[in-house]
Amino acid sequence: MSVKADQLKIVLYPHPVLRKKAKPLSEITPEVRDVAARMIFLMHEAPGVGLAAPQVGLPWRLFVANPTGKPEDDRVFINPVLRDPGEEPEAYEEGCLSLPDIQASVTRPKLITVEAIGLDGKKFTLTSDELPARIWQHEIDHLDGVLILDRMTPIDKLSNRRAIKELEAEAAAATKKR
Ligand SMILES: [Zn+2]
Description:
The structure is a single chain. The chain is an alpha+beta fold. It is built from five helices and seven strands; from the N terminus they run αβββββββαααα. The strands form two sheets. The protein has a five-stranded antiparallel beta sheet. It has a two-stranded antiparallel ribbon with strand order 4-5. The longest helix has 17 residues, at 161-177. The chain binds zinc ion.
């Protein structure tokens, strides 16, 4: 499969790729580098703090993140794995670039460690109990086909019902036009 990185765009719910379980990458090819660069561009353009490969239509275990928006804080996570979640859960308001106009309080462990491979092929480990921890968990959910829709409270689901229905209706209309 050849990917035209410069043509990748953020896909919106309910695109089926967002529900696929992504596959690990076996090597870091120039194509992977091009895709990561494009994803970093799209993340800043949105703007957002993280973007997972399924969100640009690719079922790959890769995401990019930048908790501050400063270029030096761009980071690429390949085949990431979470470990050592803290016992203390925290509810925090999350949005998603594939779910525009939807905000929901999501409860996750506050403290977590992520292990991943960087674009240089080297393995790295990071631990956080702040925004990065939140981003890693949200993005790794994407690699497993999980969206904040699945984690929001029934009350949030109700208050976001209109926005969710609108996204579903737009996708249905686009399918009919094709
Ligand atoms: Zn998201």
